[in-house]
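Translate sequence into C-alpha cells.
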Amino acid sequence: MVVYDSSVFIDQLRTGRYTQQMDSTPELARTSSVVLAELWRGATTDAERVFLHALERSHPIWSPSESNWIESGRLLDKMQRNHGFAAAKLRDLHFDVLIALTARSHGARVVTSNRTDFELIRRYRDFMMEVW
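Result follows.
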C-alpha cells in the first residue's frame, strides 16, 4: 500500500507532473487524514475543493492512532534536542511525522517530494519511503 504525502498532491494539482507515476503505481492507495487536513487548510480554488472531496471518497482514510500521536511527540522531542529546532520547525515537522508513523503502522510506503524532512524523520524511525 502507498500513502501520498501532501507535497505530491500539491505538485500534482499545480502541474500534473505525477499523473503517469500515480496511474502506474501497483499498490493500493490510502489517504492520510493528516494529508487531507493539510490540503483542506491550503485549498484556495473550487477545483482544489472538488479534488479533495473526490480524494475523500476514492480511498480509505487512515488516521494516526493514540500510540502514533505519543510517539510523534517523543520523536520531535529528540529532534529538538539533537538539532535545536525552533518551535515553528517542530510544528512543520509534526504532521510529516504523523504521516510517516501512520503509514509505518500499516506497512505502507510514503511517497513524497519533500526529501529533506522525511529523510530526517527516517533517521529517527524507519519507514518505507520513496521520493518523487
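Note: Strands lie at 2-4, 29-32, 61-62, 109-112, 129-131.
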